[in-house]
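Side project, low priority. Logging it here so it doesn't get lost.
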Amino acid sequence: MANFVTIERGLGPGGRVAVVRFDRGDRINALSDDATRELTRAAQCFEDDAETSVVILTGGKSFSAGADMKAGGARSSTSTDVAALRRQFRKGPRLTRAWYEMDQVTIAAIEGFCIGSGLALAVALDFRIMARDAHIRIPEIALGMNMSWQTIPRMLQLIGPARTKQAVILANQSISAEEAYQWGLVEQLTEPGETFNAAMELAEKVAAQPSIPVAMTKQTINRLAGALDDLASHMDLDQLTLTCLTEDHKEGVAAFRDKRKPQFKGR
C-alpha cells in the first residue's frame, strides 16, 4: 500500500501544531487516487482532535503537479459509463471538502509548483505561503475539461471573478508567485526553501490564541463566504463528467502525452 502522507503532532505552543507532509519522493508529487485517499484520511483524522488547533500541509520538492496523468484513470478513460465516472470524480471534491471543513486553521506551504488539482487542494486551506520561485498553473481547460473540486467558488472568494476567469480560462498560463500574491491567491511570499519555516511561524501565532473562538471564527467566516457553494457542488461534478466525455478532452489528453499542441473542435 502507498504511504505518501505522514503526520506529526504535538509541535508549537502547547503542542497545538501538527504537520501533514505529502511527499511521493519525486519532484512531481502528483495526486494519484492513492494519494488523494491518504490526504482525505489525513484531514479526517483531526475531526476529534481537541489538542491540535493548527495544521500545516507541505509537499516535497514541489507542492503538487495535480492529477497523476501517467497513471491513467477515469479522466483519460474512453468509458462512457456516466455513473462510473461520477463515482470516480467524487474523490477530489471529498478531499478538498475534508480540508475545507476542518475545525483547525490550515496553512499550505507551497514550494516548486502548484498545478491543477494541487491548487484545488491549496485553496481549500485557510492560508497559503509560497516560495518566490514557485508558480501556479491551471491546465484543465487545455485538457478539454472544466476546473472542478469546488475550486472556482473558492478562488472567487479569494481573487474575484475577473482574476478567476483569467487564471482558469487562459489555461497553461503560469501564474508567478508575485502575481499570485498581488492577486490575493496567496497571503505570503518567502525565499525558496523557507515556506515551511514561515508556515510554522504563522502556525505558532495562531496556536497561541484560544482555540475555541479561533475555530468558531473560522467556521463562521467559511459559512458566510461559501454560503452558496454547496448549491453548485452537483453542477461542478456533472460538468467534469460531461467534459470528460467530449472529443476535445480525448484530444487534450492525447496532446499532453504526445507533447504537442492540441487541435480542439468544440465537440
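Brief comment: The chain has one domain: 5-258.
Revisit when time allows.
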